Amino acid sequence: MDIAVVNSLSYEQFVEVFGNAVEKCPLVAAAVWSSRPFTSIADIDDAFGHFIDSLPDSGKEGVLRCHPDLAGRDLQSGTLTADSLAEQSQAGLTQLGVAEAERIAVLNSQYKLRFGFPFVICARMNDKTSILQQLSQRLASDHAHELTHAIGEVKRICSLRLQALVCPTHLGPAQPNHVPPRL
Ligand SMILES: NC(=O)N[C@H]1NC(=O)NC1=O
Fold first, then answer.
1. Is 70 in the pocket of ligand 1 (CB under 6 A)?
2. Which reaction does it catalyse (predicted)?
């Protein structure tokens, strides 16, 4: 879908297409629709990012709480969203050994107990080793830093989901040696 098509979507259609850009938070897409017309994917991405940043801490925590645990119950019971399943699978989290699965489950519980929201990381930019490392490291963080870090990861996940939905064409003609926008 290109930008012109995105800009032509009704809000119902926009929420249908982008409703899971932020995991299980269609409200974000519903709010971002007001920022049309968009000029590029980067522009859409900025609108999602600004809306998330504008939330109070309780709203940011709410966004995090909509995320499933990595390698958690939803993965085992087959109830992950298609986006999340593809991401967790790419990071190798569907292929964990018994010890690795146990370790991530223990760390996920400790993390939730400490911060009151689940550990969130952009699975597509990591593998199971770096995820386990960062989970241990971030457990030692303080609440304010961790909230900021986790929301940064939500925005990374969102950027990659947007890139998969919108093709990088612009309203103007393609430039030679065109470099796609960095998200
Ligand atoms: N908990 C968590 O990080 N979940 C997510 N990460 C990601 O890349 N996709 C998710 O669903």
1. yes
2. 5-hydroxy-2-oxo-4-ureido-2,5-dihydro-1H-imidazole-5-carboxylate + H(+) = (S)-allantoin + CO2
Nearest CA to ligand 1 atom 3: 120
CATH code, 69-142 = 1.10.3330.10
Mean pLDDT of the chain: 93
* C-alpha of residue 70 to centroid of ligand 1, in Å: 6
ipTM of the prediction: 0.99
Known catalytic residue: 67?
yes
Are the C-beta atoms of 181 and 41 separated by less than 8 Å? yes
Which of 122, 132, 155 best tests ligand 1's pocket when mutated (most atoms within 8 Å of CB)? 122
Binding site membership of 120 for ligand 1 (Cβ less than 6 Å): yes
Domain range summary for the chain, segments of one domain joined by +:
69-142
> What would the DSSP string read from start to end of 124-160?
GG--HHHHHHHHHHHTTS-HHHHHHHHHHHHHHHHHH
